[in-house]
Structures are given as structure tokens and as C-alpha cells.
Design goal:
single chain; OB fold (Dihydrolipoamide Acetyltransferase, E2P); five-stranded mixed beta barrel; 6 strands
Length: 142
């Protein structure tokens, strides 16, 4: 009986260690995220389009670009935020973020690197959808 318990303990420890190792990524120096990003944009999550066991598909309304140019006003982004591939943040409708992207093609965006999204805390800014007049995007709340 004791041998079985020890064997079970070793098995569970190995299982936890394997799961932990499987979900680690190589850390990237923060300065390199900038170098990998051809497009850096500020936007907010307008919809959660789909959810499954491993990811969310979100729609992002682009407010302005900090680097690069795009004609897109909105884009979709697949977030690997669940299960073993838990590398991207889980976003909610209304989250305001800075997105570090490789680019946007045919309405689909690709992150420059795993998790390269900076969520703006506390919803400190309003978005056009919250204002009567357009052009007041990301104005400080009063």
C-alpha cells in the first residue's frame, strides 16, 4: 500500500512538472518586443466572437496607430489564453489595450510575440462608442 502511494505521488509530481514545462515560453527582453512589432496600435475589444478550450477570437476596434500604417478600422485577433498554450491575456469586451503586432492582413491580426498586449488598467479612457460625438476617442474620463 505504501509503495503504491509513493508511486502515485511520484507520478503526480512528474505530471505537474511536465505540464509546467510544456506551458513555458522563452522570455523575451521587453526592448525586443518593440523591434519585432511592425505595427503598434491602441484599441479596445468590441466583441468576443468565439471561445473554445484553447483560445478566444476577439474583435478589436482600432483607435490610433503608434507605429506603422494600416487602413483597418477593426481587426480580429486569436488569443491563445487557455489550456497548455496560456500565453496571451484573457480580454473582455471594453478592455483598452496597446497591441504589438506583426501586421493586419484581411482583417486578421497577428501578435508580434506571445502575450504582446499591454492592457490599460482601470478603464481610464472613454471610447467613441461611449461618446455622442465621434473624434473623442480615448479622452481622459472626467
Amino acid at each position: 500500500m505504501r509503495g503504491t502511494m509513493v508511486l502515485l505521488g511520484v507520478f503526480l509530481a512528474a505530471l505537474v512538472a511536465l505540464r509546467t514545462e510544456a506551458s513555458k515560453i522563452q522570455c523575451l527582453p521587453l526592448a525586443k518586443v518593440d523591434a519585432l512589432s511592425r505595427l503598434v496600435v491602441v484599441g479596445y475589444v468590441s466583441q468576443i466572437l468565439a471561445r473554445d478550450r484553447e483560445s478566444d477570437l476577439v474583435s478589436v476596434r482600432l483607435v490610433f496607430s503608434l507605429r506603422g500604417q494600416t487602413e483597418a478600422k477593426e481587426f480580429q485577433l486569436r488569443l491563445r489564453n487557455k489550456g497548455v498554450m496560456d500565453f496571451d491575456p484573457e480580454l473582455r469586451v471594453g478592455n483598452q489595450c496597446v497591441f504589438f503586432l506583426e501586421g493586419i492582413q484581411d482583417g486578421q491580426a497577428k501578435l508580434a510575440y506571445w502575450g504582446s498586449i499591454a492592457v490599460i488598467p482601470n478603464q481610464n479612457f472613454t471610447t467613441e462608442s461611449e461618446n455622442e460625438a465621434p473624434g473623442k476617442s480615448l479622452q481622459p474620463r472626467r
